[in-house]
Amino acid sequence: MSDDPKKLLDQIVASAADDEPSEGQLARLSARLGPLLGPPAGGGGHGAGGAAGGAGALGKWLLGTAAVALVGGGSYVAYRATRSSTSVAISAPADAGARASAIADAAPVTLDAAHELDAGVEHAKRPPSASEALAEESRLLGRAQSALTAGDGRGALRWVERHARRFPKGALAEERERLAIEALVVLGRRADAEKRASLFRRRFPRSVQWPRIRELLDRSR
Amino acid sequence: MPTFEEVYREHVRFVWRTVRRLGVPEADVEDVCQHVFEVVHRQLPGFRGESKLTTWLFAVVRRVVADFRRSAYQRRRADHGEVEIAVAADQEERLERARARALLDQLLDELDDDKRTAFVLCELEGMEVKDAAEMLGCPVQTIYSRLRVAREKLEAAARRMQVARSTG
Description:
The structure holds 2 protein chains of 2 kinds. Chain A is mainly α. Chain A has helices at 5-14, 23-33, 54-71, 76-81, 99-105, 111-118, 130-149, 153-166, 173-186, 190-203, 210-219; strands at residues 89-90, 109-110.
């Protein structure tokens, strides 16, 4: 680097040109924003024109998401898995038959246990590929978000718990937990929301979702 | 009003660069950008066009970045003070650029938020001063003044850096 301070400063400032995101980084970001972006045009890009609506649009979006996840150079699932490898105890009922309604009412159990209960019932087929898993995760959480937007906290919790059973350590686990906490707040179950938030904090101490969760809990006081 | 997808497509690179330049470490830019766009998605229906879209978007970016920088994690990183440069040592040119970029982080950290923001928008983003003034809601003269002081501080910091290098 230059010995002249002014040139050194110019050289340093010029390095800001490297702040441009790469195509791979943009593809990963698009994948993470998932359902918010709607169906990508031509199976690629960052979610062009028109909101997702109906089964056809959803199907296209799922395909597009899978493509985008692959463009990222290595699966997003693998990327996130390195950031969240610890397991955590979160509510769940012991009785599989009554699971859906019980989850909405209260119910702590470990996610892993819930996942085991589910194994062999709904998803005893071949394991999904990384891109298929991500698309399915996004779909489930997209439904949870839609339920929340409609003010349906119970519905949101059902979708969230369905995600938790299928993908206990999924790539979108942070997003799932944030949605769960939001749903509990909507239902007026503040104590449960606080408990879940506390588990979230332990499991994802670096999560960028945390300020939002904190704000949500503060606002609900 | 633009759709969320249009906002994302048009402005994702601007958001990414700005998040990085306002002080988010490279490893966390993706997380923070995700959060920015989640906020945008939630709040866009309430945007009535009272200001330019970029002004509104920039306000969201600033808020999210400020939240991030206040977080305990960020404080812990700052305490360690080490800059990671993820480039193989034999890649001289890339290493040099990575070092320069790490130094830019250090220099920008010496500015307060107002001066840093003015410098990022006008010097790094190449925005006109009048546009930056509108975006930040202050008179043009204030921006000129912040830019002048920011440049002085950065030059002084570069001089100190130079002295440290030559005596180190």
